[in-house]
Amino acid sequence: MEKRALRIPGFLMLLVLLVDIGAVAWVFAKAGTNPDRQAQAVGALVVGIIIFILITSGMLVLSPNEARVIQFFGRYVGSINRAGSTGLCR
Hints:
Radius of gyration: 18 Å
Strand content: 15-25%
Shape: elongated
Structural class: alpha+beta
Helix content: 40-55%
Strand order of the largest sheet: 1-5-2
Number of strands: 5
Number of helices: 2
Largest sheet: 3 strands, antiparallel
């Protein structure tokens, strides 16, 4: 039985990625040469990279007459078959 997978619009996720990059850049700008804030900047960089990898790994684009099966650790989660849809699949 086919079920619909969760789909988040790609432009929304692009906005989240831009905010993520801006937040990491802001933390680095505030850290400057202050040794107390440099550890905070490294932590923000690690979290920012993890968020970036998770969001970009889930992006997909569907062409007309195409469908994708979404799996989570080998278990069927759902399908996306709407032509022209793009977004983050979880």
